[in-house]
Structure formats: C-alpha cells, structure tokens
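User: Here's a structure from my thesis project, written as structure tokens. My advisor, Dr. K., wants to see whether a designed sequence matches the one we expressed. Can you design one independently, without my sequence as a hint?
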C-alpha cells in the first residue's frame, strides 16, 4: 500500500516542469532503490542472529538458539563461537563448480581380498634330493670306464666302470675258501664255525657294493677275479664325472654323480616387497622359451629365511614334477604367483583349504591326515601355513587405490569426502598403510569401508590447505597452537588416566623386551583410546582431539609389528609428547600399581552396594536409598583394616543416621571420598568400568565427587533437579568395552 502511494505521487509530478521534477525524482529514486537493500540487510541480520547458538560453559552439550539459563546448572548461557563446525583441522570446503574445475575424482574404500600377481624370474636346476654320488668302496685302479662323459644316460644296474683291486682279490679268495671248507667239513660243530666264516666273507663283499648275483658267481669260481664291475645305483644321467681310465683310487673317492630328472627345481629370487604374497606350498605357474605355449606348475618348497643384504632379494625354490622329462636343467623360466590374501596375510586358496600337506615335500597333498609318501613325516593341516577357503568366515582387508595416497617419508595422507554435507567437503586424514597389492594399498588404520577417498586431485586439495596454513601433508602441525600442560579439555582429561596406566605397563614390557606382554598392552592402549567419549567437546577442541587421537591410533597400529624394545617405545613416546604439546594431556606413563588380592573381592562388593545407593539418589528414590545404606555398611566391614577403611566406616556411620533423602545426599560426599581413596590405593584397574565424576555445585558450591560404572552423568547430589550436572574427572578402572 505504501509503495503504491509513492508511485501515484511520482505520476502526478511527471506533469510538473523538468526543473521541479529532477531533484524530487532523484530523491525518490534513491530512496526506492535503497529500500530493498535495507530490507535485505535487515533480513540478513535477523538470519545471522537466529543462526547464533548458545551453550553452557559447564555443559557444552547444551545448544540453544537463544540466550538464557542452562537447564542443568542454571548458569548463564554463552554464545557458541561463530564460524566453527564439528569438522577436523584438515577440512576444506569446495564448491560444486570448483570441484568440477579441479577435476576431483573419488573412489570408495572397499573390503576385499588383496589380489596380487607376482612376476618372478628363475632357472631350472637339478633336484638335489635325486642326485646319488657313487664312491669307491675299495682301493684300486680304473681299467675300464663305460660311462666316460658327463650327460650319459644310464639305467639302474648298468655297468659304468671296471676296477682292478688287490683288496677285492683277497676278499674273493676268502669267500672261495670258505665255500670249499664247508664242503670238506666233518662234524656239525666244525660246520657251524665254517658257516659263520662264510657269512662273514659274503658280508664283506656286500660292503664293497657287490650285488647278490656277483657274490653268488664268485662262490662258484675256483679262483678269484682281480677286477670288479661298478653298477649304476639308479637311473638318470651322469652329472659329475670324477674318474678317468688308469686312475688309482682310494677308498671313499667320488666316482660318479647320477641325477634323476623326473622332478626338478625351479630356483628364483623374489624382491623384499614380494614376500607378503609368497607362502610355502603355494602354486607357481611358469613358462620356458624352449616350449612355447606350454605352462608348467610347481609348489613353493622353500623361502630363504635370510635376505641378501646387498641385493635385497630372497631365494625361493619350487618343486616341479617332470615325468615327461621336458624340462632341462639350465632353462630360464618366467614364473607367476597369483595371491588372494585376506586380513592378517591368510591366503585364500580353494585347492588347499582343508587339505593336509607334507612339511618337507609340498607336492604331497592329501584330503586327510597321514604321513608323507616320500619322507614319512606326519602331514600338517594347510591352515597352519595360512591357507583358508574363500567361502569360509574370512575377514578381508580394506583396500584403496594407489593414486589416492599422498606419501612423504613414513607418513601417508588421503583426502576423504565427508558424507551428509550440502556442498563438497573434504578432510585430510593420515592413515597406516600395509603392503601394496597391485593397484591398491592395504589400509591398516584410519579409514572405514565405504568412505570416499580422492583418487585424483588430492595434491590440489593439499596445496589449498598449505596456502591456508592448515595441517597438510608437508606440515602436519601448521596452524596448531601449543597448549600448556594440564590444560586439556575436561571431558578427555577425565578419561586419560586409564590410557596412561596402560602406557605404563606397555613401557615396562618394552623395556624388558617382553613381546607377548607388549602386544597385549598395545591392544589395551588402543581400546582405551577408542573408548574415550568426546561428545561434549566444543568444536575447536573436538577438531583438535580428532586429529591427535587419529595420530596416536596410527602410531599404535604401526608399532604392533615392530620388536618390543626401547627403540619402538621411543616412537610411541614421541607421539605422546606431541599430544601433550598440542592437546594439553599428560604424556607421563603411570607405573603399574601392585594390588593386594585380599582387597579385590570385598572392594568389588562394596563398590556394587555403593553404586546401588548412588543410583537410588540420582533417581530421587528416598526409601530405596535408605534401604541401600545398610548393605554398603555390611560390605565395607569386610574390607581389610587401614586408615582409609576407618574413614569410610566413620562416614557410613554418619550416613546411616540420616532419615530422609536430603540428609542422605548431604552425608554422601564423605563416603564417596573415602571409597575413592581406597580404590585408588588397592583396586585400580581391577573393578570393571569405574569413573569419578565431579559436580562443582554440590555441597553448597564446594563441589563433590561420586563413582559411576558408566561414562555418563547422573547426579546423586541433586537428582532430577540437576541430573546432568558434572564431568568425568578420572577413570579408576577400565574393563571390557
């Protein structure tokens, strides 16, 4: 209506002279075009005020759109700092248009077997187990050499040499005389003696490697022969020829090396980076140039436990069947190993899962337990070597494309697109990488399945963070201010002591080199870190905690595969010190407290009775609270006697005199103080989950503590009137999650 009147006025003025019209028209025109802007500004201010949030300095979980009083403690609300959100320090907002110009590409984190094709190069060689060396069992002279060059093919029993030997002549003479004496013997006793001599003469020739047929022939002779024929002990080819015609021999001199070729070895070298994918008994396929188009298979029988320090390679041997004798020693081979590996390096293999394998001969595979056909050793389940069925309950690793990782030194950074955001927001995140699997990396820590990682454009996002002086790949601490000690967020500080106690046990185990204990404490430390609640942190503190808890979790994951020693401990100590500098949390490990076992059971019973009392007070149940007091007294009297126990009993005596809930709440504080002192001295880390919570408004604003088995505030001093008033200030015991 107002605007229409202005228009009518302007239309009337149009009929006036120009000299009169111009200044008036300019005035109204300026006012008219300024009006929408002023209205827009007013709307903007209103919107800005409505977007302002108000919170409580004591209870930051309270968020309200208008100023007022905290519904928990009735303190004045304060404005939430503008410009903050609950993101991390490495977040960067990119408009849809900018994302298109930057050509950002993302790919989901997947959970799948790590598939790798390992290419290896090797050479065919003799199977050392199939080489038999023939040695001279008697001294003499080689008068005839039938197998007179290397590579001669022989069959078992073939004559390979003829040796003149005086020693053999004497042995034959003894046998011939023994046979003759048997025939000429008279009495049975004499015959028995001469029979023993005959058997001894036969055995002597057997030891000289004469066959039974040769010995039988000598027995029929009338005079000994001064030559002996050496026969091939097995079929094969001559690979070592150490004898020549006319050569004199001594007992034990090597003559021939005869090798069978029905099985051969493929000897290869694998790089250090290939080792995660190679396992004993794993199938290997290979080709040789002499037989194009034909593929051979064998199984890994040996992986050298020692790495070549200069060339950084490991020797790998494959046993290969060669029944058709197609493979010749000396042939070069191009080999390939296909590995599908699940979490913790377990190999997914359908052909070996559930099978039994020989620990010495991997080519011997059976469906059930038994012994090796070659060496007779008991067969071993394939699962012992890390083989599992693909269809079984197998946990697969997390995989991300190689192109998504920005690496500098030992650090690896990826950029993740955050979900449920109206515009593209990316967050830089340090992660722990495992082995590379083809075009993917295995992720040990830092990402979850389904998250979207940037596969193209990550360096551009990182450059943007560097320009804004935020933590980035090159400078992880950029823009982060150091904090004074013991100035950490209250919610985190109250839960930090549990981690420090585990840190103390870990430090002790690593200093002693106790790997098993260190491994257990590492898991406990990671569990303590993951269980820390941070839902009440202000946005800036939340961003800081997310960053440094992520870094600490990564370090604990990295050192899990390292030796338990002081060098590994120094890596953890460095990260704890970083957490102290920037978050304000203590980095000093708490030494383990040796608890007297006689305290644990009665202390646990007293604690449980106390918790029942605290729950009744928090629920405003007067009669239930009064009935709970005698049970606390009964259990407390079972505690071993000391000064703290006396104080607890004295406080309970005063508590028992109260007749209503108001008096019970007033007398509850000394009981809590005494019980907390006893637990700190005798029950640390032995009573499940147990937290100390402090309310600054209890006891007429002097403050009061109480114990809770949950990391949540249910105030027994005020009940429903201020049920959420309080903060966790300490963790006395940390049980299972």
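Assistant: Designed independently from the structure alone:
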């Amino acid at each position: 209506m107002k605007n229409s009147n202005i228009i009518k006025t302007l239309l009337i003025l149009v009929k006036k002279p120009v000299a009169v019209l111009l200044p008036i028209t300019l005035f109204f025109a300026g006012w008219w075009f300024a009006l929408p802007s002023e209205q827009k500004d007013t709307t903007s201010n209103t919107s800005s005020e409505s977007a302002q949030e108000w919170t409580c300095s004591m209870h930051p979980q309270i968020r309200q759109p208008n100023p007022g009083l905290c519904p928990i403690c009735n303190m004045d609300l304060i404005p939430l700092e503008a410009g903050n959100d609950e993101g991390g320090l490495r977040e960067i907002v990119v408009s849809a248009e900018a994302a298109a110009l930057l050509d950002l590409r993302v790919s989901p984190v997947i959970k799948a077997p790590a598939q790798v094709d390992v290419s290896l190069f090797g050479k065919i060689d003799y199977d050392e187990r199939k080489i038999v060396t023939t040695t001279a069992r008697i001294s003499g002279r080689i008068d005839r050499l039938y197998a007179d060059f290397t590579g001669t093919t022989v069959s078992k029993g073939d004559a390979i040499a003829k040796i003149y030997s005086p020693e053999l002549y004497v042995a034959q003479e003894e046998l011939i005389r023994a046979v003759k004496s048997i025939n000429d013997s008279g009495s049975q006793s004499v015959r028995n003696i001469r029979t023993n001599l005959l058997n001894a003469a036969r055995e002597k020739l057997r030891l000289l490697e004469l066959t039974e047929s040769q010995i039988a022939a000598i027995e029929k002779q009338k005079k000994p022969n001064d030559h002996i024929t050496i026969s091939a002990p097995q079929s094969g080819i001559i690979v070592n020829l150490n004898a020549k015609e006319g050569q004199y021999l001594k007992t034990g001199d090597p003559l021939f090396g005869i090798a069978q070729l029905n099985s051969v070895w493929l000897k290869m070298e694998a790089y250090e980076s290939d080792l995660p994918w190679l396992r004993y008994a794993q199938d290997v396929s290979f080709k040789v140039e002499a037989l194009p188009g034909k593929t051979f298979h064998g199984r890994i029988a040996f992986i050298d436990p020692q790495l070549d320090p200069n060339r950084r390679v490991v020797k790998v041997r494959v046993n290969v069947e060669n029944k058709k004798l197609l493979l010749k020693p000396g042939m070069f081979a191009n080999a390939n190993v296909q590995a599908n590996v699940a979490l913790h390096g377990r190999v997914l293999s359908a052909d070996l899962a559930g099978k039994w394998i020989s620990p010495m001969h991997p080519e011997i595979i059976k469906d059930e337990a038994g012994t090796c056909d070659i060496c007779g050793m008991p067969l071993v389940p394939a699962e012992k070597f890390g083989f599992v069925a693909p269809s079984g309950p197998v946990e697969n690793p997390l995989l991300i494309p190689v192109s998504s990782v920005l690496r500098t030194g030992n650090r690896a950074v990826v950029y993740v697109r955050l979900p449920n955001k109206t515009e593209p927001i990316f967050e830089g995140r340090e992660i722990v990488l495992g082995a590379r699997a083809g075009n993917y990396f295995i992720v040990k820590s830092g990402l979850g399945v389904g998250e979207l990682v940037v596969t193209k454009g990550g360096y551009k996002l990182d450059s943007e963070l560097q320009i804004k002086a935020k933590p980035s790949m090159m400078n992880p601490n950029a823009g982060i201010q150091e904090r004074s000690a013991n100035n950490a967020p209250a919610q985190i500080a109250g839960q930090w002591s549990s981690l420090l106690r585990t840190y103390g046990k870990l430090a002790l185990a690593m200093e002693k080199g106790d790997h098993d204990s260190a491994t257990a404490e590492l898991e406990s430390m990671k569990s303590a870190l993951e269980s820390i609640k941070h839902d009440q942190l202000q946005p800036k503190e939340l961003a800081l905690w997310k960053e440094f808890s992520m870094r600490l979790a990564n370090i604990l994951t990295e050192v899990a595969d390292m030796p338990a020693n002081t060098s590994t401990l120094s890596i953890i100590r460095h990260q704890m010190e970083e957490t102290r500098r920037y978050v304000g949390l203590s980095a000093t490990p708490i030494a383990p407290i040796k608890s007297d076992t006689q305290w644990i059971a009665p202390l646990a019973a007293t604690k449980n009775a106390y918790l029942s009392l605290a729950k009744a007070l928090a629920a405003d149940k007067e009669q239930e609270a009064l009935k709970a007091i005698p049970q606390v007294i009964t259990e407390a009297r079972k505690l071993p006697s000391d000064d703290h126990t006396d104080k607890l009993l004295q406080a309970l005596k005063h508590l028992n005199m109260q007749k209503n809930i108001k008096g019970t709440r007033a007398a509850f504080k000394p009981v809590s103080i005494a019980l907390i002192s006893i637990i700190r001295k005798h029950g640390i880390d032995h009573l499940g989950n147990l937290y100390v919570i402090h309310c600054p408004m209890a006891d007429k604003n002097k403050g009061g503590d109480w114990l809770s088995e949950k990391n949540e505030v249910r105030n027994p001093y005020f009940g429903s009137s201020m049920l959420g008033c309080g903060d966790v200030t300490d963790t006395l015991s940390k049980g299972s999650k």
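When you compare it with your expressed construct, this may help: The chain has 17 helices and 34 strands.
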